[in-house]
Predict the 3D structure of the following.
Amino acid sequence: MQTDLRNRDLIGDLDFSKEEVETVLDVAWDLKRKRALGEPHAYLRDKVLAMLFFFSSTRTRGSFEAGIAQLGGHGAFIDSKTTQIAHGDTEREMGEIFGRYFDAVAIRHVTWGTGNRYLNLVAEASRVPVLNMQCEIYHPFQCLADLMTIMEKKGRDLRRKKMVVSWAYASSYLKPLSVPQSLILQMPRFGMDVVLAHPPEFKLMPEIMEQAREQARKYQIGFEVISDKDGMQKAVEDADVVYAKSWGPLLVTDDPEEGKKIQDQYKHWITDSDLMGKAKSDAIYMHPLPADRDIEVTSGVMDSPNSVVFDEAENRLHVQKAVMALTMRN
Ligand code: CP
């Protein structure tokens, strides 16, 4: 067990070793139990977390803000539009200055080609940990919550469990690639056979695909990619975990109108009861939310006993508290 994570950044999923992720999960379960019993756990009294948002959020803001308060600290919500970033405060200023005010800086910045670079530049200038609340490449806290949830439902030994990470149709906006990319990087370390399914225009970043293949080789698990117009149906055969969500065709275009035209060819990529019927009878349905109800997934599936979407959302709180407690303590 690796226990010294003080002052560490968490920007990419592989920034923490497998053993460090196991430590995070161990602490997360302890904190979840303490909260259930009403046991105090104010490990971060007087610590302050900056939460800098360039994009909207329900779960991430709520769970970080509640989490730091439950640990005895305070979360400062900062909407980027209300700062002087547009008037000259660069990443250097934000890292240097927020690093002197706060005990960690959490950032959400999902703009394609910009967000991840922004986080890394702030981290270079900051003397305190930088935590990735989602960029265009990674969503590491979502992925930790997902891993925790899968272990709660399927057992701690996930070897040979089949996890399907599938694209699904959505009409709302071109969603980032970060959730599927984080999943294919992290899950192979925990022994699951991963099947990634998407229409041809919805490829993930080549460098992330290569890293995911490398993880799969290292941990000797299966990693299959189904990239065709009806891949969702094939992928879910006998799956233990069906994780189906939308993302934009961002390697082809980040233009919303052009992207929507491409997306609209694939309205049949919906998670419904027929699709779930192809998976194992005890397969779980996962989605990080928000989902486009009855477009991306039917309400029948989302509200079914196989759906674990609210447990996933809850576990955001526990894994984030664990990472804050481990990285922000004295
Ligand atoms: N899953 C997730 O990150 O939700 P929010 O966008 O609401 O924070």
